[in-house]
Structure formats: C-alpha cells, structure tokens
Design brief:
heterodimer, A: 285 residues, mainly alpha, two-stranded antiparallel sheet, 8 helices, 4 strands, globular, B: 86 residues, F1FO ATP Synthase
C-alpha cells in the first residue's frame, strides 16, 4: 500500500513539470556534460570537481557508511533485517564472486578488493537513479533535480578497469615470476600458428580493459538516455497528453534499470575482476 | 543518375549516418537477443532437469547474460562514434 502511494506520488511528480514546460527543445546529451565547478589544475592534470566527481564522493561516503551500518554495527546471533541484508551481500561476494574466480590461496588477499568493487559500483549506480539537486542548473533560483550516474562517464569506469588491469598483471608476475607468467599467455598450438595467435592473445589482454569499462559505462549511459528520451518525447512532440503513454514506459525502464541492471553490472564487474586476477595468479599452463 | 541525386535533395550524409546508426544498434540488438534467449532457454532446461543445481547455475546465468547484453552496447558505442565522427 505504501509502495503504491509512493508510486502515485512519483508519477504525479514526473507528470507535473511538463504541463508548465512542454515547449522548447530537448537534448539528452546535455545531461552528461561535465562542467568544472571547482577548477583544480595540477600542471597537465585536470583534477577539477565536476558532476561525476561529486557523485563519486557521495558514493564513496555512502559505501563506507553502508558497509559500517550493514556489516559492522550491532551484530547479533539472531540477525535482524538489516544484518540479514548485510549477510546476504557478504555471501554473494564470498561464494558467487571470490570463490568462483580466485584460487583459495589468494582469497584472503583479494576478497576485500572484489567485495569493495561490488559494493562501491552498486552504490554509485544506485544513487545515479535517485534525483539529486546536482545538475548544476537552476530554474528561477531553485536547483534543478535530476538523475545522473558517475558510472555513465567513461573516465570513471576506465579508471576502475585500469585498477583491475594493473592488479592482474602485478599479481601474475608476483606469484609466477615474469617469465612463467608471460609464457602462460602463449597457448598450445602448432608453431606456424603461434605467429598469428600470440598477437591476438596480447591484444585480448587489452581488449579486457575496453570490454570491462565499456560494459559498465554503456549500460548506465544507455539506461539514463532511455529514461530521459522517453520523458523528453513530451518536449519533442510538445503534447502533454502523451504523458499517459510516455511516463509509464519511462517508469518501467527506470524500474528495470534499478532492479536488474544496476545489481548485475556491479556483480559482473566484481566477478570478472576476480576471474581475471585469479587466472593471472594461477594460469592454466 | 543526376535525377537520382536530385531526388535525394542534398543531405545524403545525414541519411547515411542515420542508417549507419540504426544498422549498428539494430544488428547488435539482434545478436544479443539471440544470445540472451539461448542463455535463459538453457537455464530453464537445466533447472527442469536438475532443480537442485539452481543456485549454482544462477551465478553463471547472470554472468552470461551480462556478457551477452554488453554486445548491444558495443554496437551502440561504435555506431554513435561513427555518427559523431564521420
């Protein structure tokens, strides 16, 4: 009942502004522009605080608080609902991610990393679907509320993927030594074929970097653009009555993103990181 | 030939870009659709045969789902790049 009332309020809130504003132009790409709110330039490095950085900072703080709240505070033998959620999250990180990807000798070392990835990406993705007054625009002096995910910026996901990439090869070399590790990239194949296969294998290592980052980035970007475009149809076609059709579809995509995509992308990023690091520590050959 | 060019009246590049974008996303979605259908189909079959393995299979299923689903976005990204850069 409470959920239905909440949905009605949300639908009304979604439907109300276009009545007054259903004119003018609409460009969903402006939602993803980065403006330097607090410029910080260190030589060639641009470390300015932008929208994505603000979302990342909020996400980091929330991740730490969530971890402390769910898994550290007031633990009891008979878990209440809060502790049950924490334990479920921990079990997913433990059994589904760490034990699937990492060899048992490296779980103690790398479980914190993959579990943090899971929780951090989940939180950053989720706050991307909560309207926050961080769009950087104002409407008659009031900050405009909007949805934006830090993970829909390629720089953020590429940085996360680079972490995994560096750790993978660092661990591979540390556990196996450089010679044995790089030899393990070369598969068993007849000699003439090797000239063809080895460049592909090396390329494959870098393709992991691209696929890992682009998967998360494009998923979140496409999800946001989809929602924005459906609501934006009101402005493109300039008809308020279209709201009857457009708002439910937008809400449907919103729910699909929040319930399914957000969790799966966090899970997949952590699981693939664990698999990559695990396969570097214990190569097949 | 000249009449044909006249019929298209000017903005051929724009039309070509639009067709490229649509083809990229559409073909990407086609492949991912087939793949995701395959994954869930096999999952249903496996669970029907061995219901006790459901928990173990679910992790693999979502991994496969996300890996396959990402194919659409590679297509999307490629076609958006083509759309913007060309």
């Amino acid at each position: 009942m409470r959920i239905r009332r909440l949905l009605v309020v949300a639908a009304l809130a979604l439907a109300a502004p276009p009545v007054a504003l259903a004119r003018g132009e609409f460009d969903p790409t402006t939602e993803f522009e980065q403006h330097e709110w607090i410029p910080i330039h260190l030589g060639p490095l641009n470390l300015s605080i932008t929208k994505a950085v603000a979302y990342l900072l909020i996400g980091t703080a929330l991740t730490i608080l969530l971890g402390l709240f769910l898994m550290r505070a007031r633990l009891a033998l008979l878990p209440d609902r809060r502790q049950t959620i924490g334990e479920a999250l921990y079990e997913i990180a433990q059994t589904q991610i760490a034990e699937q990807g990492l060899p048992s000798k490296a779980i103690g070392l790398w479980f914190p990393y993959v579990a943090t990835l899971l929780l951090f990406i989940l939180v950053v993705n989720l706050i991307g679907f909560i309207p926050l007054p961080l769009t950087g625009e104002t409407w008659h002096g009031i900050p405009v509320w909007g949805i934006y995910a830090a993970t829909s910026s390629l720089s953020v996901t590429l940085a996360l993927a680079l972490l995994t990439f560096v750790f993978t090869h660092f661990e591979g070399i540390r556990w196996n030594g450089p010679v044995r590790y790089f030899k393990s990239w070369i598969p068993d194949a007849p000699k003439p074929l090797l000239a063809l296969i080895v460049p592909l294998e090396v390329l494959g290592q870098f393709m992991r970097l691209i696929s890992l980052s682009v998967r998360l980035f494009a998923n979140m970007l496409a999800g946001h653009i989809l929602i924005l475009t459906f609501i934006g149809l009101l402005f493109i076609l300039q008809s308020v009555y279209l709201a009857v059709l457009v708002i439910p579809v937008a809400v449907l995509f919103y729910l699909f993103e929040v319930i399914i995509v957000v969790g799966i992308q966090a899970f997949i990023f952590a699981a693939l990181s664990a698999i990559y690091i695990g396969s570097a520590i214990e190569p097949q050959h | 030939m000249s009449t044909l060019l006249a019929a298209t009246s000017g903005d051929v590049t724009k039309a070509g870009k639009a067709i490229g974008l649509a083809l990229g996303v559409g073909l990407g979605a086609l492949g991912a659709g087939v793949g995701i259908g395959n994954i869930f189909g096999s999952m249903i079959q496996s669970v029907a045969r061995q219901p006790e393995l459901r928990g173990e299979l679910q992790g693999i299923q979502w991994l496969g789902f996300a890996l396959t689903e990402a194919v659409v976005f590679y297509g999307l990204l490629g076609s958006i790049l083509a759309y913007v850069l060309v």
